[in-house]
Design brief:
single chain; mainly alpha; TIM Barrel; 3 strands
Length: 139
């Protein structure tokens, strides 16, 4: 994409669109500051499952790993410094209570664009608890 006066936004752009970087590779995660500081970037999104795997070097994501939250806090601080909103997702929370807790934690850490998983996943989570609660009625 040609760069305009404002970095990634083409010259004369009306800013009615967003380019939202989502760093997921080790190199992209290391380049967080450069990504956030790029002129024209207004939102950066953190995919919590992938970031957790990369930062902890583990196949199993750990949403509560301190290293992940150090990264999120750094992103939020850089975002404030550069006028960039930081977004993140709740990853895969397997109960509605856990999902609510993750939204609360993201908010407490200054994440301002919070994405929850798709309606299909939320339905599966809700129905798992609902059907488990119904089982005694039919046993």
């Amino acid at each position: 994409m040609p760069r305009g006066r404002e970095g990634l936004a083409p010259q004369g752009a009306d800013h009615s669109w967003f380019l939202i970087p989502q760093p997921e590779t080790p190199g992209a995660l290391e380049d967080l500051e450069a990504i956030i500081a790029e002129p024209g970037i207004r939102i950066v999104f953190i995919a919590m499952t992938d970031a957790s795997r990369v930062l902890t070097q583990s196949h199993t994501p750990d949403w509560y790993h301190p290293g992940l939250w150090e990264y999120v806090d750094r992103a939020v601080a850089l975002g404030k410094e550069h006028g960039v909103t930081i977004g993140a997702n709740t990853s895969y929370a397997y109960s509605l209570d856990e999902l609510k807790n993750r939204i609360r934690v993201l908010d407490e850490h200054g994440v301002r664009m919070i994405m929850v998983q798709s309606a299909n996943f939320l339905y599966q989570v809700a129905m798992t608890d609902f059907l488990r609660d119904l089982r005694p009625i039919f046993d």
